[in-house]
Design a protein that fits this description.
The protein is mainly alpha-helical and 198 residues long. It is built from 11 helices and no strands. Helix 1 (7-25) crosses helix 2. The protein is elongated, with a radius of gyration of 19 Å.
């Protein structure tokens, strides 16, 4: 690793390497050695910037949760356009095609990581709780436009939709769900609340 590289650059390089290992081989393969080898740097580089590997993983998970902001912006731009069902059916594969699905078993797999995340993220699973918030905000905006029923419980619909979608996408080694399966799930969860013109 060259000297003089900004810490943020090193962090991003290591986070990118961790994401690639996680997506390729799953949480059991995610070790400090695997991350530094993937990043092409000495193992000591990781430990110069993080107190230990679980501290690194906690920062990695929180960083990936923050990356969902781009998806949130895209979903906000869809408010009032197309149909609510189509907007969500197109958003979910992009969300679950990211590192989001792989982060959940990583958190489940490592007790110390869960404990560290609880210090800054007291409830829920980072990434998935961010996604729930994004969908709740989207549904609220659509409700304000009359495209979702005025009495719809968006705070109940959003986690129900994320939970149902997560079941569709949970097997990262299997065949991805079809667009029709995703759309059917969206309709099943929120269809009763939708007031889109047909």
């Amino acid at each position: 690793m060259p000297t003089g590289v900004a810490i943020r650059d090193v962090r991003e390089q290591l986070f990118g390497a961790a994401e690639r290992v996680l997506l390729r081989a799953g949480p059991s393969a995610l070790t400090s050695r695997a991350v530094t080898e993937e990043a092409g740097c000495a193992k000591g580089v990781l430990h110069r910037h993080f107190t230990d590997f679980d501290a690194f993983l906690a920062e990695f998970v929180l960083d990936r949760a923050r990356l969902l902001d781009a998806g949130a912006a895209d979903l906000r731009e869809r408010v009032g356009t197309g149909t609510v069902v189509d907007n969500l059916a197109e958003f979910l594969p992009a969300l679950f095609g990211s590192v989001a699905v792989a982060v959940v078993p990583l958190i489940t797999f490592r007790d110390e990581l869960r404990a560290r995340l609880r210090r800054t993220w007291p409830a829920g699973v980072p990434v998935l709780t961010e996604a729930v918030g994004m969908i709740a905000a989207y549904l609220t905006a659509e409700r304000d436009l009359g495209r979702i029923a005025a009495d719809a419980d968006v705070d109940g619909l959003a986690p129900a939709l994320i939970g149902a979608a997560h079941l569709l996408f949970a097997d990262r080694t299997g065949t991805a769900p079809t667009a029709q399966a995703v759309r059917r799930t969206v309709v099943t969860v929120i269809g009763g609340a939708v007031r889109d013109p047909r």
